[in-house]
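Hi team,

As requested, here is the filled-out complex form for the phosphoenolpyruvate run. I kept the field names the same as last time so the parser does not choke. Let me know if anything looks off before we queue the next batch.

— J.
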Amino acid sequence: MLVMMKSNATREEIAAVCRKIESMGFKPHPIPGSTRTAIGITGNRAPVEPFALEALPGVGECVPVSKPYKLVGRELKEDTTVIDLGDGITIGGGRLAVIAGPCAVESRQQAREAAAPIAAAGARLFRGGAFKPRTSPYSFQGLALEGLKILAEVREEFGLKIVTEAVDVESVDLVERYADIIQVGARNMQNFSLLKRVGRARIPVLLKRGNAATLDELLMAAEYILSEGNYRVILCERGIRTFADHTRNTLDLSVVPAVQHASHLPIIVDPSHGTGRREKVIPMSRAAVAVGADGLIIEVHPHPEQAMSDGNQSLDPVEFGQLMSEIGQIAPVLGRSMA
Ligand code: PEP
Ligand code: MN
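And here is what came back:
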């Protein structure tokens, strides 16, 4: 059930409703909206009786939730969540967020050589894996702590916010210390202990769709994170597995409006993993912006042919500049500006 507060409800009234929900043995999730605060309730096994809550000062109405997810749905919050990372950098809302960088951090020099043209092209967020989930145990697994330290240096030198993956519960402690956003990869979308752990993290989470996950499964995975109290989640479409073999995955751009209909969380698109082919990244980026995505995550390597992972789908800095210029022309048509 959702408790919709009146638009003029005071902070004390909202706090009193939360205390009442706690006294009933449940967990309150007050989510401020543009017109009023809604309070989600979790931890109940059966429907919550509305009477005790409806009588409290400041309460507008109690409405049952019709969806299996309670906190990620638009029923709870009508307006799209805007995630504020500081320094004027946001994800969701009017500005298009572009996250760019190599698949993996390979060395200090490689990371700096990627970051300089990325920052110059106008992107504000840098990606790079320090912990890499690889199909083969013999493939490069990432530089771990050393990679995180290089990312922190990139943040200082270029003023970019850092997005990097945590592959398990143990790596979250480290990632949380060095990064601005924790990535949960496609392979881990239903790693429920990891989802609960990042739900208690103090920084936002980028949750990638599993390669065989439905919309509801993606939203329920996000629900795990919000139910632990971290409401700052960005969803990411990165391609799903189909019979098509002209691309690495099939980029399911139709999930963008579907997510936006069902959820208030921002959704970005990863055309790099979504296609697996460099020459398809710019066209699908244009399409992602046109379909209304809140941003893009793009693999960029200073020398793609030398990349230790995902070189085939990595843009070089010149191609990335081209991508930025093209989407910069499309974004205003959709009422968006570049972040
Ligand atoms: C990545 O972003 O480098 C990555 C491994 O992505 P995914 O989890 O979508 O495969
Ligand atoms: Mn990759």
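Two things worth flagging: The two ends are 36 Å apart (CA to CA). The chain has a mean pLDDT of 97.

Thanks,
J.
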